[in-house]
Each structure stands twice: as C-alpha cells, then as structure tokens.
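Structure in, sequence out. Go:
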C-alpha cells in the first residue's frame, strides 16, 4: 500500500508547513465535503449518521468542556458519555474494572466478527480543557455510533467497544486498564487528539516516552537569622538539583526533554526550609532512551542532597511509552483523510500519552487533528479554542475518517490481517519536532 503521508507538519503537536500560518478562530472553515467518487457505501452511512448527530455531539462536547474535571475525578463526563451511549443501545459497564470514572460501552452485530476499540479521554487540566479532551470524548462516542449503524446497515459482523479512559494527564488511566485486562479482547484500537495547526491538517507521527519523578528533600529547620548553621536547607537542595539539570540541558539531545516544578510546605523567609518537593517529567523518543536519560537526571537530583546534607527520596510514576503507530492503519487513514479533504502528515512530536502503552500491546492509531488556536496545547487560549464551532467541525471530520477506518478493519479480512501482522511501526531515526 503506498503512503499518502506528507513531509511537513504543524507546531503544537505538529511542525509548521512553510507556506501556512496557524489556523485562527477568525478564519471560517469551509464544510468538509467528501469526494463522491472515493466514498464507499459504508462511508456514506457514516457521513449520514455523524451529520445527523452533529448537534448532539456538540452538546456533549460543550457540557464536558464547561465541567472540567481532573484525572480520576471525571464523574460528570463519565455520566454524560454513558448516558449518551445508552441512548444508542450500547451495553454499558460503568466504573469499569474498579476505576470510578472509567467505563466500557459495546455493541455487537452478528457472530464471528472482529472487535474494534475506541478510547475516549475526558480529563481536564487545572486551567480547564486546555488539551481538548472534550473533543476526544465527543469523537469517541460519535465514531462508535457511526460504526454501529454501518454494522447494521451493511450487515457486517463485528463488535465496537468504547472505553472511557480517565486521567491521561499524568495518571495513566489506560495503563491501569491494560494491566487489569481491560483491552485484551480488542483486535485494534483507535482515537484522535486535537492540536494547534492549519485547517484540515492531521498527523499520524509518533510521540515521546515519558517518565515522571517525584523527588522529596528532607532537611532540618532553624532560625534563618539567629542560627542558620543549625539548619539543613531542603530548598537549597532543590535549587542545586534544578541548576544541575539546567546545566545538563547543554548536553541533551534535541529530541530529549526534562521539565519540572518545585513546591514546599510551611515556608517562611525567616525559617530554613526542612522540606522541598520537585516533580519532573523526563522525555525521550523511546523507552530505552528515556530510561538512560532518567539516570542522568537522577544524578542531578542526588547532587542537591549531597551538597546540602539533605535526605532524598525519589518516587517513580507510571512510565508512558512512545506511540507505535500501526503503519497499515496509518496509511489507510491517510487515504481516507484525502477523500475528506484532509492533509495527512507523518511527523513525530515531543508530547507524550498513555495511549503509547496501548500501542505496544495491540494494533492502534492515534492521529492528531488541527483546531484553530492562538496558542498551543495546555494554554488558556487552547481551552477556549476547544469550545469553538471550528474545532467541532474538525473533530467531526476526523471522526468520519476514523469511523470509516474502523469499518474497513471489521469488514476487510485481508486488511485486518495486514494490520495485525504490522507490529513494527515507526523508524527510530526520524526526528522529533518541538512543542512550543
């Protein structure tokens, strides 16, 4: 199968096209109109269904957007999405596998068919839905309803499963569900994610692996003026470690990232701090590179404790693996995208996702789609953009592509076999583009 991937991408989660500017919310997006000669009967069903539920999906997206919830606390989103899918006769399992805000919704037609999974993220950040997970959630349920309709209309045997996955932003909800067997019956899984970029741009590149570190320094408090020599300064330990990591950046590869914050408790200018906490993310193109780089960061953290005499404790969080995009799914996605007037690219990003771990377990695809945003993901401006009609239109378009792709996987046995055999995915030497 020939590839339709284009060599350029956009920033945020893409690299800029040289000739394009970012798509701004003031620029209206013309309607997505598939090329009639390239649209199958299944695609026509998908289009019809998603166009019919367009306003319902918009309502779901805006409801979740206006009720932002942090990871593992997405109760409103859980109830909103399961209620929507119940309306369309999906079998619902709430609080899936012991996670309060996870869910599973499934529909089966016929016997002996394959199983396509869809992941629906729904958590927000402290500044709201600044990563657009409201759009991901709406897309997930929309794709499922469209696939269900195509299975019935065209008598395709198979099962479509939506898994509501909490806490992508640091909590690793998908990893927990994987470990508990929550995706073991899926033959393939798909989802999408928004980013800043020009209109009609989509991307199926990889992402970085990421390790989170919580570092605590324990010292001894003392009066900062009368007897500072009696103190052991935990804040100094964190500053020394932070400075050592800043110096390390001179020798870092362009593909690597390390970033973090410092916090404390009961700090006062006239008291030597006896406690400081640092939280860091370490990123690299692959898990092996991430593990090696983490050891170098750990040495910097230890330098703070050594220099000040503090005791140090490191807690390792759940590691996120790099995305292993399935090439066969990716190439089919690019071809279908073209028929919907979307431009597919294949550029890697320096962001990370717990969906990367999913892609190491089964065939999967995680395309990125552009929405009109003044700033990149995790900014207040991106949160505003995630509620626009233009962002919704972009979400609906990629949802049509994903639904057609899901139906192709369920309907075409030769294609499905190729997807399953393609468990080697991306080239390790391909460069990673920068996030703003």
């Amino acid at each position: 199968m020939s590839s339709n991937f284009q060599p350029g991408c956009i920033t945020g989660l893409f690299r800029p096209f040289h000739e394009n500017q970012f798509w701004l919310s003031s620029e209206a997006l013309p309607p997505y109109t598939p090329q009639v000669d390239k649209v199958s009967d299944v695609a026509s069903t998908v289009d019809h269904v998603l166009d019919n539920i367009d306003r319902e999906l918009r309502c779901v997206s805006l409801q979740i957007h206006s009720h932002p919830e942090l990871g593992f606390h997405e109760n409103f989103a859980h109830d909103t999405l399961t209620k929507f899918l119940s309306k369309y006769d999906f079998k619902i399992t709430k609080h899936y596998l012991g996670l309060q805000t996870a869910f599973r919704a499934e529909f089966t037609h016929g016997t002996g068919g394959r199983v396509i999974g869809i992941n629906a993220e729904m958590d927000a950040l402290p500044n709201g839905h600044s990563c657009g997970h409201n759009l991901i959630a709406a897309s997930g349920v929309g794709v499922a309803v469209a696939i269900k309709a195509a299975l019935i209309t065209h008598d395709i045997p198979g099962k479509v499963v939506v898994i509501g996955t909490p806490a992508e932003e640091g909590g690793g909800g998908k990893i927990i569900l994987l470990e508990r067997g929550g995706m073991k019956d899926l033959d393939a899984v798909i989802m999408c994610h928004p980013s800043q970029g020009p209109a009609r741009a989509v991307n199926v590149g990889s992402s970085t692996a990421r390790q989170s570190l919580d570092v605590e320094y324990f010292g001894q408090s003392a009066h900062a003026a009368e007897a500072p020599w009696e103190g052991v300064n935990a804040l100094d330990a964190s500053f020394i470690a932070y400075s050592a990591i800043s110096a390390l950046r001179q020798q870092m590869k362009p593909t690597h990232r390390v970033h973090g914050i410092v916090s404390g408790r009961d700090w006062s200018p006239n008291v030597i701090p006896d406690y400081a906490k640092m939280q860091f993310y370490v990123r690299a193109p692959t898990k092996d590179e991430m593990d090696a780089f983490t050891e170098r960061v750990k040495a910097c953290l230890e330098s703070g404790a050594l220099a000040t005499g503090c005791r140090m404790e490191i807690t390792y969080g759940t590691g996120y693996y790099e995305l292993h995009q399935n090439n066969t799914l990716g190439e089919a996605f690019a071809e279908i995208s073209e028929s919907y007037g979307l431009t597919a690219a294949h550029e890697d990003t320096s962001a990370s996702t717990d969906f990367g771990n999913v892609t190491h377990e089964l065939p999967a695809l995680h395309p990125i789609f552009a929405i009109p945003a003044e700033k990149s993901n995790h900014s207040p401006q991106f949160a505003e953009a995630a509620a626009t009609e233009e962002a919704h239109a972009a979400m609906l378009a990629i949802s049509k592509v994903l639904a057609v792709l899901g139906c192709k996987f369920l309907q075409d046995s030769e294609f499905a076999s190729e997807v399953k055999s393609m468990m080697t995915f991306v080239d390790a030497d391909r460069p990673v583009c920068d996030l703003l």
